[in-house]
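--- STAGE predict ---
source: upstream dedup step, 1 unique chain passed
mode: sequence only
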Amino acid sequence: MGHKVSSIHKCDDPLLKMAAFDVVLGLALLIIFFSISSTVRYYVKFTLFVVLSLIFATAPLPLMLFKPFDPKNALIPAALLRMTARMLGIRWTVRGTENVDDSRGAVVLLNHQSSLDLYVLAVLWPLMARCTVVSKRSLQFLVPFGTAAWLWGTVFIDRGSASSARSVLNQQTKVVEEERRKLLLFPEGTRHSGDKLLPFRKGAFHVAMNARAPIQPVVVSKYHHLDSKRPWFGSGEIIISILPLIETEGVKKEEISSLIDVVQNKMQEEFTRTSLETYAQKGR
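--- STAGE serialize ---
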C-alpha cells in the first residue's frame, strides 16, 4: 500500500504537472508558428533535413565496414534519404536515364544550388553504377556523416589549396578510366540560387580529358520551393535531367575552353527550360 501511495503522490507532483504543461504548450506554439510563419517553417524543416540526413546516412555505417570505400555503400542511405525528401514535400522527376552508360566511366557534372543537393545525389546513386562524389575536405570531419561519406567512397579535396585539389583529382583519372567510376563534381565550385550558372572550373574537364572519358551533364531545375533570403522552405517539384554524353577523346588541351563553353551552354539551356517548367507548375 505504501508503494501505491508513493506513486500517487509522484503523479500529483505540481512540478511534474507544470513540466508536462510546458512541453504541451511548447509543442502547441511550435505547431501554430509553423502554420503561420514561413520563417519558422524554414528553420524547422532545415533542422529536420540536417538531423534526418545525419541519422539515415549513418545508420548503415556498421555494414559499410565489411566493404569500405565501395560506392554501393551509399545505396541504403540514399534510399532512406529519398524517404525524408518526400516527408519535407520535395518531389522529383528524372529524365534522360537512357543517356547513362554503365559500361564505362564518366565525369558527371551537376549544378550546385543548396545543401539539399544531397537529395539529388540520393536519386542519382541507384541510377549510375559506381558513382563517386567529390566534396570539400571539411565535410570529412563532420563525424559521423563524414565517416559514412568516406566509407562510400567520397573523394575529399582541399579547395583552399589549388595544387592539393589538382593532385587529388589527377589521381581519380586512373579510377575513372580503369574502374569505370562515375566521378561526380560541382563545376561551379560553390552553391548559388541564381538564374545563371556560375563559370565552370577546369578541374573536372582535365580529369575527363586525361581519362579519355565522356562528360555526363546533369541539370537540376531551380529550387523554387527554397529561398534563404525570405526565408522560405515550401513544397515543390524538381526536374533532374541527365543529358547525353559529351565525348572528350581527341579534344586537345588548347581546346578546353571551347569544351567548357559547350557543356555550360547546354546545361544553362536545360536549367532555364526546366526551371520555367517547374515555376509554371508552382503557379498552378
